[in-house]
Amino acid sequence: MSTEEKGALTFSFPFENIDQRLRELILYVSDKCSQDPTFGAVKLNKILYFSDFFSFQQFGEPITGAEYMRLGRGPAPRRMLPVRAQMEVAGELVIQEGEYFGYPQQRPVPLRKADVGLFTARDIALVDDVIQALWNRAASEVSVLSHDIAWRAARDKESIPYEAAFLSDAPLDQSDIDRAKELIAQHGWRV
């Protein structure tokens, strides 16, 4: 479902429980990454971002439906801090303060199992793939990976639209150029 908002195409998703979906995915990812020494709050944000945006790109809908914003170290769910605070108060999650190679690290530690019943097997498989791809990579490296064209197109604290998942940093190849020319001719567009 799409709506027009300030001239930009934006999508809304049929999830009534976005915060709950985010909450359960935070628990799931934190549990799955408990043995990854590089895992912390920054890396959690990137795993969530890549999972939602890859899902949107491949299947037309994200996993959580959370809104993401541009921050200095890369995209993060806009509601991450309030949701995480609610989880801490509810006794579902603690943040373990520490260091990783001299840098501060905030490790989310789940205190209960995630309710994965909110997600499809496809959702969980995609999240597992993202976790595996980023396993043992430092937060700084993962942050650089998230500084893609979608992140660069947004201003600080501005939302990153899911449609940005279709943007690419890759250079155009001849087939891209040929297809563009074909579309221009087909639709009578002027260049």
Order of H and E elements? EEHHEEHEEHHHH
The count of helical stretches stands at 7
Rg for CA atoms: 18 Å
How many strands in all?
Answer: 6
**Large-scale geometry:** globular
Mean pLDDT: 91
Q: Low-confidence stretches at least 5 residues in length (pLDDT < 50)?
A: 1-9
Characterize the main sheet: 2 strands, antiparallel
Helix content: 40-55%
**Percent of residues in β-strands:** 15-25%
Please identify the structural class as seen in this structure.
alpha+beta
Which strand order does the major sheet show?
1-2
Which short descriptors sum up this protein?
191 residues; alpha+beta; 7 helices; globular
Outline of the structure:
The chain is an alpha+beta fold and 191 residues long.
Question: How would you portray this structure in words?
Answer:
- The chain has one domain.
- Helices cover 45% and strands 17% of the residues.
- It contains 7 helices and 6 strands, in the order ββααββαββαααα.
- The chain has helices spanning 18-32, 41-59, 80-89, 121-134, 139-146, 149-153, 174-187, and strands at residues 2-5, 8-11, 68-71, 74-77, 93-100, 103-110.
